[in-house]
Amino acid sequence: MWLLKSDGTLEKDADVSNALELFADSAIVAVPRQPRIIVEFSATADGRGFSVARQLRARGYTGTLIAGGPLIPDQARHAFQSGFDAVAIDDDRIGRHGEAAWRETVQRATPELYLADTTSKGAEAGIWALRQRALH
Amino acid sequence: MPKLKPKSTAILTANHLLSGAIVYWTGSEWTEDPADALRAGDPEAHASLGASGEAEEAADVVVGAYLVAVDPISGDPLELRERQRIAGPSIALPVNVSL
Amino acid sequence: MYQYDGYDQAFVRARAAEFRDQVERRLKGQLSEDEFKPLRLKNGLYLQLHAYMLRIAVPYGVLSADQMRTLAHLAENYDRGYGHFTTRQNIQFNWTKLEDVPDMMDILADAGMHAIQTSGNCIRNVTTDAFAGVAGDEEVDPRPTAELLRQWSSLHPEFAYLPRKFKIAVVGAEDDRAAMKFHDIGLRVRPGGERPNYDIWVGGGQGRTPRVAQLFAEDVPFEEMLPTLDAMMRVYNLAGRRDNKYKARIKILVAEMGLEEYRSAVYADRDTRDTAQFAIAGAEYDRIAAHFVDHHPVGPAQNLRLDGTGAFAAWLDRNVTAHKLDGYAVVSISLKGEGEIPGDATANQMRAIADLADRASSSQIRVTHRQNLVLPYVPQAKLREVFERLKDIGLATGNVGLASDIISCPGLDYCALATARSIPIAQALSTVLRAREDRAVAAGKDPSGPTLNISGCINACGHHHAANIGILGLNKAEKESYQITLGGRADADASVGEILGPGFTAEEVPGVVERILGAWEELRYDGERFVDTYERLGKAPFKSAVYGEPQHVAA
Question: For residue A44, what are the CA distances in angstroms to A76, A78, C157?
């Protein structure tokens, strides 16, 4: 398993076996205490995992959040900006999309959002904040 | 897409990935002329056409490949949607005359 | 209107570059079609019945003259010389090529435009009243809210893979000119304190399960509006159905959960959030709102007596609306000429309208949800000149708001999902209806009639449910069949039309509509609107007029 981290680094031979596995389709009842959680997306088109991460962060989870399942490179920024620290990628997807695509897509994706959430782990500062800072 | 009957006559169609043009499979290549499409008339031939479609999709030449049931004599599609797709818009398209 | 700053400009340029990279990776086989499809859809690119179709965003229907020229350029150089304005205030080009689209995106970005989220299961183009900012009856200009929501929802990381598409409309007047209650979320902007308040409506929509939205919350202060929308979206993203695409819209979630339970879930989620982070939206709202303040010379223009003769009189009567400023008028340009394709305009027509907007409408143009265009700032003294030029370019039909002002989806002439053709029905009906309207005007009578909308499938892009007379094209045993609904309306008293009875062939439709109109004219009180006659008498007399059944037979 590979781990693409929100700082842009790609870690090979990562071990995520000790992470608590949550499925994106089950509601969060209580915030888990485990230091590492992997949220499994059930399909590329199923965006529930992004909201699961946001809810965990909003409710105070400060451990490591990993996005698992069939995400594609273009969704990595969605994961980080929703509160994930890393995306877990299997060998098959590294091979098919190319290591470079995984490394570079986050940088190549539109770098800013208008409103950066306080729970985001992405690199964006938020255009609204940048503008207001420039004005004052 | 429709389920073909075992005895249906079918052709393979798709859209060209780059241009989006509607294309038909001749057995060895894609053509824009449905008259040149290879016709398959039994389950084995249907499966073979279907496999060609999947292979061409996997090779990123075309997208959305599927089989269309056609009349065995005229070659016209049996379904309204497919007849319309082959024929193109039934309306006169706007003409960009100078004003 | 809103002008992009460096941040907005960099944003759309980066998005165009990102799409170019995605296309390259698709062509190299690094993205499969299944992976690429949601990415291209979020950039407005469909594979339709015949070709790739690109849908470009016209945020809340506002266009500058130069942006219209950019659309004309794209139509001529990357399509077949025309475009189609849609019921969501966008424009689509029907004959694009995948290989050209990255270049088209760059050209759009240069003009401060984009195709972001014009398709896909995400928050779509935010729509509003095409008369926003100029209508005499407006309480609050909805455009600053619409622009704020455009910015907030653009590339939103969390709400990009929703169960289904999500449509938001904003209105600021009692008269709803944006079909707000047929949207997933509808906002009615009301005067507040320093910034506006909002009535929030939820769960409206058309498609196979048409629903009028329900009132979620009333008079919500500006500061709570975005945190509430944020939580509304999150509850939908997590709990909306994903097992059946026909049950995946928020209207089904709200119906299945019940409004009360949905509301509790939303507030419970909102309570966990750091809502202070949304406070910055206030300053942004003010910054955006400043872009929409009128800088038009109010004096010395005076209100003229607007009259004329013949076609000019009819045009003044139907297509010219009172302006909130003295001396100005709002001009609607009908894209519904007799026998024409509703919503279509050629590149040369777009360019002529852009020139006209420069000369006589402060360089501004609007797109309406009824697929017409608007010149929002025409000095009354220039109305004759505007009319004459519109006549030259074939767009002076004086029928806005009449029955012949038909909404029609592209139908099976273009659309991959359609079950029947819509455009030829609209064309045939427009001929019959224009003749009827001309007869009424010649006889000194009011030519007004019902609204008439046509969809080529149950997805209802042609808004047939929301029309006084709705026409739905279906496929019955590989033949086109058209079902009639009556009594729908899209205004503040929104309601869904009722099915009249068995369907008709394409050839029968104009005659059927004539029989319905004939019955109405016999039954109506003097000056009574179609919807009021229908509400008073129900469908029986219309059924009888159409099918020849006795009136006492139950529906």
Answer: 11, 12, 14
Over C385-453, what HEC string results? HHHHHHHHCCCCCCCCCCCCCCEECCHHHCCCCCCCCCHHHHHHHHHHHHHHHHHHHHCCCCCCCCCEE
Write out the two tokens for C26: 């698709």
Cα gap C350→C514, rounded to integer Å: 33
Taking the C-alpha atoms of residue C372 and residue C385, their distance in angstroms, rounded to an integer, is 20
- Mode of pairing for the β-strands spanning C82-85 and C344-346: antiparallel
Query: Residue C27 — φ and ψ, nearest 5°?
Result: -70, -30
Taking CA atoms, what residue in C is nearest to B59?
C29
CB proximity under 8 Å: A 38-97 to C: 44-48, 50-52, 54-55, 58-59, 72, 74-75, 77-82, 96-97
Q: Which residues lie below 8 Å from residue C260, measured CB to CB, with a gap of 6+?
A: none
| Residue (of C543, C484, C490, C474) closest to C510 by Cα position | C484
C242–A46 C-beta distance less than 8 A: yes
State pLDDT tens for residues C106-128.
999 999 999 999 999 999 999 99
Q: Does the distance separating the beta carbons of A54 and C234 come in below 8 Å? A: yes
Instruction: Give the global pTM.
Output: 0.96
Q: What is the pLDDT of residues C450-494, one digit of tens each?
A: 999 999 999 999 999 999 999 999 999 999 999 999 999 999 899
Contact A47 C17 (CB under 8 A): no
- Residue A1 CA, chain-centre distance (Å), reads 16
